[in-house]
Structure formats: C-alpha cells, structure tokens
Design brief:
Blueprint: H1 17-25, E1 30-33, E2 51-53, E3 56-59, H2 65-77, H3 80-85, H4 94-108, H5 115-126, H6 135-141, H7 144-152
Parallel strand pairs: 1-3
Antiparallel strand pairs: 2-3
C-alpha cells in the first residue's frame, strides 16, 4: 500500500493535552510544550518533530501525535544509562527501533480520539516505511520480533498490554 499524501495528521493541538500528560506520567516522563514557531528542544529532525532530553519530551502545538509517541517510546525502550545521557539522538539498534514503532501503536489506544488505527494512517501519511509497505501490514504480519523485544524487556505483557515501566 502506498503512503497517503497530503493528509493532515493529528497534532498535539488536536487531542486532549491532559491525556498526553497522563500517559507520559505513567512512565515518569515529563511533557513540555514549547512556543509556536520556536525550535523544539532536543528535536533530532527539527521542524515540528518532538524532541527528547533525559526523561522530558518537548513538543509544540503543531507536533504530530505520532512524533510525540515515537520519541516517548524511544525514552521508554532505551537502557537507563542511555536515558541518563539522552540529548536529542535516541540511538539504538534496528530491533529497538521496531519495538519503539510497535509500542507507539499500542500506546495510541490510550489517547482519546487517536487509537492505533488512526496512528497507522498518520504514520503511513508521514512516510514511515516498513518492509511490507504499510504500518498495518507490518504490525499485523511482520512485527513479532518487535513484540518479543518489548515483552523481553518488561514493557509489554504476553497479552499485548503495555506495562507502565521504563526499560
């Protein structure tokens, strides 16, 4: 399936801010909103993409929800020593990156008005690329290694429920 183009993705301004704060606080993460049109602290990609420094996630109102979730999941999935030194570049290997993508879809279900179905659409629209072509195909047919990574590190139960803990 080809990526959807010219489709508006959900941004921080489109969802209940309290839902985001509540979700991140379950992982002992802080969420800070920067001023519109200002550079986002700790953003690897720049523009409206979320930033990370330590256990703080930085966004603006125009930051896509998928970006907030992705960067938050990097902080959740990385080791404690990497988290202590974290400033912009999450690093990690391919398996951890897959775990991050998987967990962001699971956590999307915890945000009112988002959910994994919408997040899959937004990820495709934004240009995430997976071997099978779409986020949905990857999640349903090719993400067992990501799921096992999360289970093995105590971030997901055997039944696929997120565990409110940092790796």
């Amino acid at each position: 399936m080809a990526a959807i183009v010219n489709r508006k993705v959900l941004t921080i301004a489109d969802v209940e801010f309290g839902d985001l704060v509540s979700l991140l606080s379950q992982y002992d993460l802080q969420l800070l909103v920067e001023n519109d049109n200002e550079p986002i602290t700790g953003s690897y990609w720049g523009d409206s993409e979320a930033g990370i420094v330590g256990k703080t996630v930085y966004v603006r109102r125009d930051t896509p929800v998928h970006s907030l979730l992705h960067e938050s999941c990097h902080v959740i999935c990385m080791t404690a020593d990497r988290r202590e030194r974290l400033d912009r570049d999450a690093g990690g290997d391919d398996l951890e990156e897959a775990g991050v993508c998987y967990l962001q879809l699971v956590l999307a279900d915890r945000i009112s008005g988002v959910g994994r179905e919408r997040l899959m659409q937004d990820m495709d629209a934004w240009g995430y690329s997976f071997r099978l072509g779409s986020t949905r195909e990857w999640f349903e047919k090719d993400a067992e290694d990501a799921r096992k990574f999360l289970i093995n590190h105590g971030l997901l139960t055997q039944h696929g429920e997120p565990v409110s803990a940092l790796r």
